[in-house]
Structure formats: structure tokens, C-alpha cells
Amino acid sequence: MPDLFFELDTALFTLINQQWRNKYFDAAMPMFSGSLTFWTVVGLAGIAWYCMQFRVPLRRLWLPALLLGLCTGTSDMTANLLRDTVVRSRPLNSLPDVYYEGNGQWRRTPPDFSGKKSDSHSFVSGHATNSMAAAAFIVSVIPQAAPLAYPLVGAVGYSRIYNGKHFPSDVLGGWLAGWIIGKIYGKLYPVLAGALSAYAQKRARARGGTQSAPARYATARYAFVKSRLRALRLRRTGKEPRL
Predict the structure, then answer these.
(1) CB atoms within 10 A of CB 18
(2) What is the rounded end-to-end Cα distance, in angstroms, of the chain?
(3) Which label site among 119, 121, 132, 157 has the fewest CB atoms less than 10 Å from its CB?
């Protein structure tokens, strides 16, 4: 069974990396795999869209931004731990005729290539783990982002195979680990937002005054997220919301 799995994994890798190639993907896939400029533009565009859509000031995004940073940090550490534990060679270090991109140029391993030692391991893909963790968390907070977030995650994972850096199973394993981590942090967000809101209300009552603007925003945001999550659960189960 392990031999059959490895053969299928390698066959799918060969299709994507060697046979399903074209000049457009040669130009695009390296960007999905690591261009800081590309992902900075995507991130800024997403933040701008969210703030305009929901009329949210940038200064109100500190809690989801903090959790997003912790989420991707956790996913990155998890991917590194798995790579150091499994110790699987990357395709470009173990297979012949593999196309791979390095320093802006496409190269190919020789037909008689028998492999080489490397400290950089393959299972799981860190790009796939981190992008899925970020997407799962963002979609938990902003469900409307799903049509944009998950296709980008798919493109990142595909690029890692196309660029010769990972086998398909490395990407699938990274997606699974990232999805679990992202969902955990997604569940944590409304809990923390509610706790901060309750603390702000308690302080306002203790001072004998009204809620501050940040406290009012936290309360409204927590109620919005809670209602959206409840509506999504009801939609998935086919139940109608109680009036």
C-alpha cells in the first residue's frame, strides 16, 4: 500500500510538473509561491475591500490582525515540526527530469539524476499550511471572503507542485494541518471579542459612564460575528432561524 501511494503521488506530480506546463503558468506560478510584492498587494487590497464594505476603521482591526499573525505563526511552526519529523526529500532533490524555479530561472534535473542530500525537507508544504491557515481564519471571521481566499490557497498549493518543490501529498497534508489550525483560531476570535466587550462594559459601569467608542464597536462586532456564524450553521443544516 505505501508503494502504491508513492507511485500515485509521483505520477500526479509528473503530470503537473512536466506535462501540464505552459508559458503562462511558467510566469505566474513563481509569484504564487513566494513573491512578497504580490502577496503584499493582495493583502492590502483585501484589507481595503473589507474596510470599505463594512465601514470599519483600520484601527479596529488589531484583534483579528493579532490572531491572524498568531495563526500563521502556529501553522509555520507546525509545518517545520512535521518536516523535521518525516524527513522526506523534495522532488527536485530526489527525482530526474523535474522542472524547478530558482533565482528567477527555470531549470531541470538531469535524466540520470539519482538524488542529492539536502537539509530542506518536503512533508508538509509550509506554503500550503500557512496559506490555508490564514484563509480558514479569515473566512471564519469574514465568510464573504471565501470565494477569494480558497482559490488563492489552491493556486499556492498547485504552484508548489508546478515549481518542483513538493509532492501533491505534501500540499494535501499542509492544507489539512492549516485548515485545523485556522478553524481553531477562528473559534477563538468571537470568544476573545466577547470577553473584551464584557470587560469594557464592566469598566464603563464601574466608572458610572457610558461605553466608549471602542467598547461599542467591540460589542457590535461580536454580535455581528456571532449572528453570521449562527446563520451559516443554520444554512448548512437546512434549518430555518427561530424568530
Answers:
(1) 15
(2) 53
(3) 119
Closest among 15, 16, 9 to 160, alpha carbons compared: 16
- The span from the CA of 25 to the CA of 34, in Å, is 14
d(Cα 121, Cα 92) in Å, to the nearest integer? Answer: 11
Between the alpha carbon of residue 36 and those of residues 31, 40, 67, 202, 236, the distances in Å are 8, 6, 21, 43, 36
- Residue range 7-28, pLDDT digits in tens: 899 999 999 999 999 999 999 8
The CA distance from 101 to 83, in Å, is: 21
Query: Residue type for 229, please?
Result: L
SS percent in the chain: helix, strand, coil, step 5: 75, 5, 20
Distance, CA of 36 to CA of 12 (rounded, Å): 28
DSSP string, 26-64: HHHHHHHHH-HHHHHHHHHHHHHHHHHHHT--GGGGHHH
Residue 195: all three cell numbers together: 470577553
Number of Cβ within a 10 Å radius of residue 129: 33
Confidence bin at 158 (pLDDT 50/70/90): very high
Percent of the chain at pLDDT exceeding 90: 38
